[in-house]
Design a protein that fits this description.
It contains nine helices and seven strands; from the N terminus they run ααααβαββαβαβααββ. By secondary structure, the chain is an alpha+beta fold. The protein folds into two domains: 157 residues; 168 residues, Histidine kinase-like ATPase, C-terminal domain (Heat Shock Protein 90, 2-Layer Sandwich), CATH 3.30.565.10. Strand 6 and strand 7 form a beta hairpin. The chain binds adenosine-5'-triphosphate and magnesium ion (MG).
């Protein structure tokens, strides 16, 4: 491209020299009659038109050629990316499928050892079995999330909605979840319940989204910290919902808003959208080696999408910690 530009500039430069050389004064030296002078002027005019047209043509064709080349490269790169994406999807599908059986076997035997054979185990052996159990469960959840993620991407996830009171539902999930959260010394403040806080939702999927949000709140909080949940009903155009989320909601409809607020590390402002992308983990968290595959919030966001809802992240109360909120349409 640079070489062609140099050539065009060189031609233009030569042309400029010739143009000056054949100035009116020079022409009048050679053309002694008026007719000859007029003829020379006409020829000069045609040469001007011809050379400028040739220059414009070569400039445009060089430019178009480079655009075509860039377009071809882009198309090729896009095709390669699609291929890699397909390979990644197949790889995840195969790995998650292949890992299920060994995980189930390890979990089955370690649970058996724990339940049926614990009196024959020494204290140290019991601790080993507990560690095997806990870590296999973690692995099972990761594999489960990964295979769910691929189902979501392929659009084959099924949503079976039933009418449920979201506040009651969430509070009952918190009770179940407390067992694990308690281990980290984090406590939960449930939401106030209300008669009219119902929505049509898939209980399993809602529970999965909530679990992903709550497990993050626990994971990124210090022991002794409190995680607060809040459920309320709002119109789609209510100011309580951030403007960019409100824009995609139906202003006339009512929505159930759920927020989970923690007092942990918080999510830096520039990452608050990215955390809902697949495999995204905050760099600061990566260096601090928190566990996770980076798919929890991606799945939660897709679950909300399938419910006609939205999810977003803000800073927690008083600017500390994180607040993850979602809205789903309220039941009629
Ligand atoms: N409550 C929170 N406080 C601080 N950071 C958070 C919070 N929730 C999410 N994040 C950030 O968003 C990232 C993405 O969260 P996500 O749940 O998708 O993945 P993960 O927790 O790292 O892994 P996984 O959920 O798959 O086990 C996290 O790694 C973390 O950096
Ligand atoms: Mg998570």
């Amino acid at each position: 491209m640079k070489k062609s530009a140099f050539k065009i500039a060189a031609v233009y430069f030569l042309f400029g020299i010739l143009w000056i050389f054949f100035s009116d004064k020079t022409l009048s030296l050679f053309m002694h009659t008026t007719d000859a002078y007029a003829f020379a002027q006409t020829v000069k005019g045609w040469v001007y038109v011809f050379i400028t047209a040739a220059l414009v043509y070569s400039m445009v064709s060089v430019h178009l050629g480079s655009i075509e080349k860039a377009e071809k490269e882009l198309r090729e790169n896009y095709r390669k990316l699609q291929e890699y994406d397909k390979m990644k999807t197949n790889f995840i599908a195969i790995i998650s499928h292949e890992m299920r059986t060994p995980i189930a076997i390890i979990k089955g035997y370690s649970s058996f050892l724990k339940k049926k054979n614990s009196e024959n185990l020494t204290q140290e052996q019991k601790e080993f079995v507990d560690a095997i159990n806990e870590n296999t469960e973690r692995l099972r959840l990761i594999v489960h999330d990964l295979s769910d993620m691929e189902k979501i991407r392929a659009g084959v996830i099924q949503i079976d909605k039933v009418r449920l009171n979201v506040a009651d539902f969430i509070n009952s999930r918190i009770e179940e979840f407390k067992y694990n959260a308690g281990q980290n010394g984090v406590s939960f403040e449930p939401s106030a319940e209300g008669e009219d806080l119902s929505a049509n939702a898939d209980p399993d999927r809602l529970s999965q989204a909530l679990l992903n949000i709550m497990s993050n709140a626990v994971k990124f909080s210090e022991p002794g910290s409190v995680v607060r949940t809040h459920v309320a009903k709002f119109k789609g155009n209510d100011n309580i919902i951030p403007a960019e989320i409100r824009d995609s909601l139906d202003a006339a409809k009512e929505y159930i808003l759920v927020s989970v607020t923690d007092r942990g590390e918080g999510i830096p402002e520039k990452e608050r959208k990215k955390v809902f992308e697949e495999f995204y983990q905050s760099e600061s968290h990566l260096t601090r080696k928190h566990q996770g595959a980076g798919v929890g919030l991606f799945i939660a966001a897709k679950i909300m999408e399938f419910h006609g809802g939205k999810i977003w992240a803000e800073s927690g109360d008083g600017g500390t910690g994180a607040k993850i909120s979602f809205v789903i349409p309220a039941g009629d």
